[in-house]
Amino acid sequence: MRIRKSLVPNRFLHVAAVAGALMTLALPAQAEDWRGWNIHPPGYPNSVALETFAKEVTEKTEGRVSPRVYNNGVLGAQPDAIMQVRSGALDFANFNMGPMGPIVPATNVLSLPFIFNSVDHMYKVMDGEIGQRFAEELEKKNLIALSWFGSGARSFYNTKHPIETPEDMQGLKFRVMNNDIYVDMTDVLGGNATPMAYGEVYQSLKTGVLDGAENNYPSYESSGHYEVAKYYSLTEHLIIPECVCIAKSSWEELSDKDQKIVRQAAIDAAEMQRKLWADRVEASRDIVLEAGVKINEVDDKKAFQNSMKPVYEEFIAENPDLESLINDIQKAK
Ligand code: BDP
């Protein structure tokens, strides 16, 4: 209850303030209930890893920090959630680096198609000194990246026909994540790109507002997109890392000891997520095949890679300072 100053004599207020201060000293530090954003459903590798992170943090800090994960994107779409973690309205999240590009320009490099030639190449880069550089850039925008999840390779899928060559993309409307690089990428392949929130894609595919989208097997399956877009073509054009990110304000409230605990829990979560990922890819592939999805290999992947030349050229022309980062990543094979 708030005390209305005018109704209480001054000396009582003083006594109350001293008593309050003494009480604060006597009580243990306030436990932090952390709220975490997650776009995926329960059981998804990222969700399981985040739940494990929450549990480990709660146990090891003896409840001083007690994170809770909100699944299925119930706390908002990814670009909004990034803003919320930046401002400290949310405490942590698992973010894909795609929608991070408009906020942290250096991370756009991670959205260049075919920048990584394998998931292992991506892990090697992100776990090393270059990953540290990205973490520093994120910190400038109030996000503390503690570890990196994988999200496999993304491929195009659609409701019409298999995609074997860029010509097969002609005239088709694809949903992409919120980043202009993906619009350029789809344009140069001959398709039309529409940035859209993940949660709206299913309905848009179903009603024909979209002809297709692009994602990895686990998301293609868990989102149900495979039920409505039955042609999955293995273009594998994007390999994008994801962070376990903490709000800078929440991070700075922690003691050194608790920061160590939270960091280690995030690293353990990434190790777990990467292991779970491999099994989930197989399981998701089986589910979609069972449901009648037509999966096709793309024999001439070079045709897709070569089409990306103008995307790189334009990107470097607009971001000359990021060219060396691109080179460093490509060299780090
Ligand atoms: C999934 C990512 C998730 C993205 C989603 C999308 O894990 O962070 O929001 O794709 O396409 O693979 O929006």
From TrEMBL:
> What GO cellular component entries does it have?
outer membrane-bounded periplasmic space
Q: Which GO terms describe its biological process?
A: transmembrane transport
Name the keywords, alphabetized: Receptor, Signal
Which range is the signal sequence, renumbered to this chain? 1-31
Kindly list the GO molecular function terms attached to this UniProt entry.
carbohydrate binding
The answer to keyword Signal applying to this record is yes
Q: Which domain of life is it from?
A: Bacteria
In terms of CDD domains, this protein maps to: PBP2_TRAP_SBP_like_3
What InterPro entries does the annotation carry? DctP_fam (IPR018389), TRAP_DctP (IPR004682), TRAP_DctP_sf (IPR038404)
User: Which NCBIfam families does the UniProt entry name for this protein?
Assistant: dctP, TRAP_S1
> PANTHER family, from UniProt?
DICARBOXYLATE-BINDING PERIPLASMIC PROTEIN (PTHR33376:SF2), PTHR33376
Q: What is this protein called?
A: Tripartite ATP-independent transporter solute receptor, DctP family
